Amino acid sequence: MRSPRLASLATWGAGPLLVLALGAALGRSRQERNPFVEATAALSEAERKQLESAPALAIANATWALGDLESVKRVLKAELDRLPDSEGHARARTTLRMAIADDNPDGQAALFALTCTYDERMCGQLREAAQREARDRLVPPGNAVPLSLLGGHPR
Amino acid sequence: MLHGATRVGRAAFRACDPDGRVRRTVVDAKKSQPRRGAGVRRGALVALYLGAGALGYGMTAWGPANAAGGSGSTPLSRVGYALREERVSVSPEAWTALGEDVEVVRSTWNPEQLPIYDLVVAVRGLKHGGTPDWVEAERLCRQLSWPRCDRPALEALKQRSRP
């Protein structure tokens, strides 16, 4: 009586579990052979988080390079919502882009001030940072440094 | 009137007339039932084993939450890695796996930004072994109604979008 029961248990229980485990092992070996997995598997938590924010950053960069004003505003706002306070430099870069694309001088001033609160170093080199960002944008508005940053007044 | 019966299988008999011609095949219903049952059971067993193997493989090889040794590698980090690197030389299988990651990430992405995500994926060639899909990129760019969608602009976008 016990033997057929054991055989049945092995056939219907242990057997499928063994096959499941073998399948999992095969799948894992496939993952481990994948260079993308290898390159990202041994990263620290901070490094992994940095990589995980790369797609959002790529979208923000792409939109900044070619996007229309509406897309730029929408994506930069989403980027600002996404970035934690600890990412001061990235937040400053985002508000700087917002300022460059803003055609309202008051709005620009407020965004420059915000940039300064996020990154003091960038604040000291606002003009150079704005020049870099403007160079990265291929279409107007925002592909030129705002007059308020160029300094001096026409005589 | 039947004069003979020949066994033709485990559960069937062939009935013959006096000339030896087959009149009909008589199936022993009692014996055929367990045989059909055994067939069904065998089929279920094969399906169970195949399903278990596929499930085990799928959970680790294609699972959305990577299970490769509980490592920190996730579809999002792998897509991020591919976007960050300027040139990636890997096997076609690895690119195929990355294409699956791209789809996993896409399924969780902000719907408003999906066309831009697709555009970035196209210019970086993440679903084409690293070769940009310019035709698709131009189509997506025009769909977005962005000011410039010409090839030089898209090539610049490829460079400038790199995180």
Protein architecture, described:
The complex is a heterodimer of chains A (155) and B (163). Chain A has 155 residues and is mainly alpha-helical. Chain A has helices spanning 2-33, 35-41, 45-52, 54-66, 69-82, 88-101, 105-118, 120-124, 126-136, 147-150. With 163 residues, chain B is mostly helical. Chain B folds into 2 domains: 4-61; 75-160, no CATH class. In chain B, helix 2 (75-84) crosses helix 3. Chain B has helices at residues 29-61, 75-84, 92-108, 114-124, 134-143, 151-160; strands at 4-7, 12-16, 22-27. Residues 64-70 of chain B have low confidence and may be disordered. Chain B contains 6 helices and 3 strands, in the order βββαααααα. Chains A and B meet through helix 1, helix 2, helix 3, helix 4 and helix 5 of A and helix 1, helix 2, helix 3, helix 4 and helix 6 of B.
Q: What's the helix and strand layout?
A:
The complex is a heterodimer of chains A (155) and B (163).
Chain A: H1 2-33, H2 35-41, H3 45-52, H4 54-66, H5 69-82, H6 88-101, H7 105-118, H8 120-124, H9 126-136, H10 147-150
Chain B: E1 4-7, E2 12-16, E3 22-27, H1 29-61, H2 75-84, H3 92-108, H4 114-124, H5 134-143, H6 151-160
Antiparallel strand pairs in B: 1-2, 2-3
Q: Could you give the order of strands across the largest sheet of chain B? A: 1-2-3
Class inferred from helices and paired strands of chain A: mainly alpha
What does the main sheet of chain A amount to?
none
Sheet bearing the most strands of chain B, described?
Answer: 3 strands, antiparallel
Low-confidence segments of chain B, given as residue ranges, are: 64-70
From the alpha-carbon coordinates, what is the Rg of chain B to the nearest angstrom?
31 Å
Poorly predicted regions of chain A: none
Spatial shape of chain A: rod-shaped
Q: What assembly state would you assign to the polypeptide chains in this entry?
A: heterodimer
Order of helices and strands of chain A: HHHHHHHHHH
Q: How many domains comprise the coordinates of chain A? A: 2
Beta strand % of chain A: under 5%
Terminal Cα span of chain B: 91 Å
Range of helix content of chain B: 55-70%
| Element string of chain B (H = helix, E = strand) | EEEHHHHHH
Helix content of chain A: over 70%
- Number of helical runs of chain B? 6
Radius of gyration of chain A: 27 Å
Number of strands of chain A: 0
Query: What does the average pLDDT of chain A come to?
Result: 91
Arithmetic mean of pLDDT of chain B: 83
